[in-house]
Amino acid sequence: MRPTTARSLAALSLAAPVAILGCAGEGQPVISTPSRDRVSGSAIVAISDGDMAITMFDDGFLFGPDGSGAMRTDDLLTVIGLPLPEPGDREQRTRFGSARVSSSVIGPPRNLAVDAQGRFALVLSTRGHASRDAVSWEDLSPGGRLTLVDLRDSFGRGPRISATLDVGPAATTVALSRDGSLAVVLSGSEKVVQFISTDGATLARVGEAALIGMPATGAQPTCVAISPDGATLGVTVVGANVVAFYEIVKGQGAYGLRPFGDPVRVGDFPYTGAFSPSGGHFFTTNLGWDRSQDRYLVSAPNTTVSMIRVAGADAEDPAHRVVATAGAGQNGEGIAVSPRGDLVAIGNLRRSFLRETDPAFTLGGTLQLLRVDETAGTLTSGPEVEGPAGPQGLSFDATGDHLLVTDFERGVVQIWRVDRSQDGPPALRYTGLRVGVGDGAHNVAIIP
Question: Contact, 116 vs 102, CB < 8 A?
Answer without folding.
Answer: no
